[in-house]
Amino acid sequence: MLDPIGLSDRVRGIEPSGIRRIFELMATMEDPINLSIGQPHYDPPEALVEAACRAIRAGNNRYTVTQGLPELNRLVLDDTEARFGRRPETCLLTAGVSGGLMLSFLCLLNPGDEILLPDPGFVMYRHLATLCGAEVRYYDVYPRAPRGRFGVDLEQVERLISPRTKIVFVNSPSNPTGGVLTRAEIQGLCRIADRAGAYVISDEIYDLFCYVDDYSSPVSYAERCIQLGGYSKTYGIPGWRMGYATGPASVLEAMKTLQQFSFVCAPSPFQYALLEAMPKIDLAPYREVYRHKRDLVTQQLHPAYQLGAPEGAFYAFPQLPPGADPAAFLDAALQQKLLIVPGKAFSMRNTHFRLSYAVDDAVLQQGIEVLNGLARRFA
Ligand code: PMP
User: Whole-prediction pTM value?
Assistant: First the structure.
């Protein structure tokens, strides 16, 4: 490879995602037991596919206005208001939640600003913050007791916040932990952010996949909240690149301007498709499928993994068996064709691993069997 002369300073700190490497490895394997995938295992609902085909045939293939179809903006705001009791000022349709993350970080973070991120957390946050020259501080969401839930220590967050904190970042349900924050935790985080004059950015891409009764969002509590939501996971359309951002008009206007000069708009036929089909589709049956898979994992995984029941998304984040060397464990899994993601891809620690149960039950059962064999060997 040529010497990377000419690359900007801002991209030099960015490494390829640990998950990508697993994708590449998988391509070389025959019949892997792949529990490393971060997308739903089902096809999109038929009504949505039909609506997309109709939209394309009807000629809805041009740009839309930057913020997206006004009726779809309204639908998002109505839904957010109905669920969380507060109507955000405005909405912008984005190119996936990834698009919303990029735009919101670029619009809020100056070099030297601080952002509080969960550890463990989704890989993209850290790298986008670094790209903006911001300093990342982590709040720990690991369980405090064996088989405990992944949650927030509000006192630690109080200690981490500083006059330079610009964003307190929340992701519930969480990738990679499957944790859902309690209402008290969400309220506490918002109170701390409000007092510091910081924004709360809330990544709610897994909002549908919540297996506890009380799902709450910073939208209900934070003075300055940017809500990022999306359709990739819930509607089974990660390749469509559809998401949304809601929040104060001042920030959303800046994000819109930046979108005008970057992504331009969210994919137009898919905006039409979601507008037409969403009100007709009930996603609850999809959630129940994942609740069942979640139960399989919780009930059948060897106790050495110290796993409490994941509360949302389609991930579990078990602890490595006590004393197991992380690299040796991953290698042993690979030798049995099992693909999982090492905890260090998401965290400063390397004590856990992520498995995705967004697979057929048969594959999940095979994976659990391999893991239970490894638990006996390594524990
Ligand atoms: N946030 C989280 C927590 C995710 O897991 C993902 C996808 N893996 C994204 C955002 C990005 O999703 P998309 O851009 O497809 O909406």
Answer: 0.96
